[in-house]
Specification:
Elements (H helix, E strand, L loop, with lengths): L1 H15 L3 H9 L24 E4 L12 E4 L6 E5 L2 E11 L2 H11 L8 E2 L10 E6 L2 E9 L7 E10 L1
Antiparallel strand pairs: 1-3, 2-4, 3-4, 4-8, 5-6, 6-7, 7-8
């Protein structure tokens, strides 16, 4: 008897259109989280070069990332912002490697084309895991930290770039 009463109530609600509009509303609600970056206008295409951008996680193309390292965004620790000729960015990369190879990667690649960075004054550091680079109107600081000091093969690389 209860099933019959519920069935009649549901039929009446559907017939009067009380449930259907709610379903349509939910279906039509836009959820940008489920859309691809290109659908919401985020792209790294060359035609956007030089345009201002909002706060984002787009990486700068003049920072060479070592093989095996991936952009990490734990608690929004990675961000970038560009406006006109000014930019600022903090990028955190995670991966496995050897500390001396990671340091050598940056020391060899940063000055090369297309990156074009010059060695800057090396900042004081207890561990020697900090590097500084400069180019016209910009500076870049790189810090390499082991995730677990006991293992010493898993690292976080923090790259900070800003216009001066």
């Amino acid at each position: 008897m209860l099933k019959m009463a519920w069935g009649r109530t549901a039929a009446v609600l559907l017939a009067t259109g009380l449930i259907a509009p709610a379903c349509v509303q939910v279906e039509e609600t836009r959820n940008p989280v489920s859309e691809s970056f290109s659908e919401i206008g985020v792209t790294a295409s060359p035609e956007l070069k030089g345009r201002s951008a909002e706060l984002s996680r787009l990486q700068f193309d003049d920072i060479p990332v070592p093989d095996g390292f991936f952009l990490r965004n734990h608690r929004n620790e990675t961000y970038s912002f560009s406006l006109g000729g000014q930019r600022v960015g903090r990028f955190v990369y995670w991966g496995f490697g050897k500390e001396d190879e990671i340091l050598r990667h940056f020391e060899q690649q940063m000055p090369r084309n297309p990156y074009g960075w010059s060695h800057g004054e090396r900042p004081a550091s207890e561990s020697g895991r900090r590097l500084r680079y400069e180019k016209a109107g910009q500076r870049c600081e790189i810090e390499i930290e082991p995730v677990d000091r006991a293992r010493n093969d898993e690292f976080l690389i923090t790259v900070f770039v800003e216009s001066t």
